[in-house]
Amino acid sequence: MLHDAIEIRKIAGPDENDVRYEVYDSDTGVSLGLYQSMEHAEAERQRMKASDNEVKAGDADDDPSVE
Q: Does residue 8 carry a pLDDT above 60?
Protein backbone atom coordinates (compact mmCIF):
# COMPACT_ATOMS: atom_id res chain seq x y z
CA MET A 1 0.00 0.00 0.00
CA LEU A 2 1.41 3.38 -1.02
CA HIS A 3 0.67 5.01 2.33
CA ASP A 4 2.94 2.59 4.12
CA ALA A 5 5.63 2.46 1.44
CA ILE A 6 6.58 6.13 1.06
CA GLU A 7 9.14 7.06 3.68
CA ILE A 8 11.57 9.87 4.39
CA ARG A 9 15.16 9.33 5.41
CA LYS A 10 17.88 11.77 6.39
CA ILE A 11 20.92 11.76 4.10
CA ALA A 12 24.08 13.29 5.57
CA GLY A 13 26.70 14.75 3.27
CA PRO A 14 30.44 15.09 3.84
CA ASP A 15 29.87 18.34 5.73
CA GLU A 16 27.74 18.08 8.89
CA ASN A 17 25.66 21.04 7.64
CA ASP A 18 25.01 19.29 4.32
CA VAL A 19 21.84 17.38 5.16
CA ARG A 20 19.13 16.37 2.70
CA TYR A 21 15.96 14.39 3.04
CA GLU A 22 15.11 11.62 0.61
CA VAL A 23 11.56 10.56 -0.14
CA TYR A 24 11.68 6.94 -1.23
CA ASP A 25 9.53 3.90 -1.85
CA SER A 26 10.52 1.36 0.78
CA ASP A 27 8.85 -1.48 -1.16
CA THR A 28 11.06 -1.03 -4.22
CA GLY A 29 13.96 1.02 -2.81
CA VAL A 30 13.42 3.67 -5.48
CA SER A 31 14.27 7.26 -4.61
CA LEU A 32 11.40 9.65 -5.35
CA GLY A 33 13.37 12.83 -4.72
CA LEU A 34 15.84 14.71 -2.53
CA TYR A 35 14.79 17.79 -0.58
CA GLN A 36 16.68 20.45 1.36
CA SER A 37 14.32 20.37 4.34
CA MET A 38 12.16 17.87 6.17
CA GLU A 39 9.19 20.16 5.58
CA HIS A 40 9.59 19.97 1.78
CA ALA A 41 10.06 16.20 1.91
CA GLU A 42 6.97 15.77 4.08
CA ALA A 43 4.92 18.02 1.77
CA GLU A 44 5.90 15.85 -1.21
CA ARG A 45 5.04 12.67 0.67
CA GLN A 46 1.62 14.08 1.60
CA ARG A 47 1.04 15.16 -2.03
CA MET A 48 1.77 11.61 -3.21
CA LYS A 49 -0.58 10.14 -0.60
CA ALA A 50 -3.36 12.58 -1.59
CA SER A 51 -2.89 11.68 -5.25
CA ASP A 52 -3.12 7.97 -4.39
CA ASN A 53 -6.32 8.62 -2.41
CA GLU A 54 -7.87 10.44 -5.40
CA VAL A 55 -7.09 7.51 -7.70
CA LYS A 56 -8.53 4.99 -5.24
CA ALA A 57 -11.69 7.09 -4.82
CA GLY A 58 -12.09 7.37 -8.60
CA ASP A 59 -11.62 11.14 -8.51
CA ALA A 60 -8.49 11.02 -10.69
CA ASP A 61 -7.17 8.90 -13.54
CA ASP A 62 -4.17 6.85 -12.40
CA ASP A 63 -2.61 7.14 -15.87
CA PRO A 64 -4.07 10.12 -17.73
CA SER A 65 -1.85 9.50 -20.77
CA VAL A 66 -3.73 6.27 -21.58
CA GLU A 67 -7.14 6.52 -23.15
A: yes
